[in-house]
Amino acid sequence: MKLSDTMATPIEEKLDQNLKVRTGMVHVSDGKSRPEPLRLNLTMELLSLQKLEVVTPSSCHPNGPPMESKERMVQITRQKQGGLGLSIKGGAEHKLPILISRIYKDQAADITGQLFVGDAIIKVNGEYITACPHDDAVNILRNAGDIVVLTVKHYRAATPFLQKQLTKDTPDSDNDATCAELKADEGYKSSVNSGTISRSCSRPMSICSEPEKRWTDVVAVPLMMAYVTRYIYGTDKLRQNAFEVRGLNGITTGVIHCDELAILSQWLKLITDNVVGLTHLQMKLYNRNFAVGERIEYMGWVNEGVINNNISWQSYKPRFLLLKGTEVMLFETPPLNVTGISKALVVYKVYQTMFRIVKESETVDSRQHCFLLQSSGHEPRYLSVETRQELLRIENSWNAAIVTSVIKLGRKTFAVSHHGKSGGLTLDWQAGFSLTEGADSAIVWQYKFSQLRGSSDDGKSKLKLHFQDHDSRAIETKELECQVLQSLLFCMHAFLTAKVASVDPAFLSSIQQT
């Protein structure tokens, strides 16, 4: 059978250096032209599209870097003089991997004989650094201990340029200049843009082994905080048996087509699980910088519906959602470091924001798995995710974030009017509801959260709270007026949700739907 006639195949799984690798034939297009058959290759942190090519075997390079860009684990013993014996360039701020740019002769990295200029460092002692800026990567390597295990993968597109830099007087500290030159290098640009890799042999062909067929990467998309979707970009139109993956570095797989829905579902689950796992590891890395009450509960991609002429949701924009401490944030692109977290497009307080899952009968178009975020004083935001599972993950994280934010807040007081008198309604995590009046803030009445039996409002400023007296069991209604009623109601909802969660630890994990 010719390769052009190859059908999509079931997913095969194998172990490569104790790491799971999945492969299978699919068809890939740019969304316009006819799909062509390629092999999908999935590792924990990388999704590659591969084609079968005739190449010269790696035996042509017995003392050089590996011809195949597979992951390798290399153990280095740090030396007292010279440390790890290597220098690095690149970093997330330059949209480049962390690359080994120099290996010092007879020092630790050189002694291993397994590290090369052009190797991209993926993990340090099992910790992913693929989304780290340069300075963070340097600090991680410096503090990695005396025995350091690096997970690396050779980045052949950058190797010729980095080797050329070794002959120049460019200081190792000048990372910005080197990265700019690398991205402008014609050899590097042509290799990245075409997806091809230089395979010139350093010895005459007659001395090399016979050429052989081998799967080589056409496109490689890093999965750390990658965007996976079945929808045609920016619309509510679901692709039939097809999906797309977009990496942080701007590289996309194109549209991947599967012949069978079962195979499509398998690929989507495997890829999404890897993205979620990597994103969770990155979240843990970020959280090292934050106190308990300020940590990230969730981060991942959503799509926001955009209104056009107040008629309908005409288009969707990808947004990166973070739940951190007392805040919910939306970004146009994921933050690449801790500093980037302060540059959100939208920031709302969790305790003043309502989260509501949209029922299927209430969705505005063909997008499924939708939810609303509405913060006091702002228009509601209509958002969607790819799967029901992801929607429930956000809901559970939201409930956890509410508990964190309310406990951190402790108490909140709203200016109200009660029987014509000005006062303050306080929501207190420990004490419950209380109304105070006068200059001395004397308490007029006080109830626990558990005594609230219901509430009603006119949607403008008037609010009725119905409490049950502990002794008489009678219902006592308190009438109030508040000029920021929506803010008060949202905050009440947050305090009550947090109380339920604290009384019932199973509350946050009670939703076990598929």
Automatic annotation (TrEMBL):
Entry keyword set: Cytoplasm, Cytoskeleton
Keyword Protease appears in the UniProt entry: no
GO molecular function, one term: structural molecule activity
SUPFAM superfamilies per the UniProt record, alphabetical: PDZ domain-like, PH domain-like
Pfam family, one: PDZ
Family per similarity comment: Belongs to the syntrophin family.
PANTHER family, per the entry: FI16515P1 (PTHR10554:SF1), SYNTROPHIN (PTHR10554)
Name this polypeptide is given: Gamma-1-syntrophin isoform X2
Organism: Drosophila rhopaloa
Gene field: LOC108046246
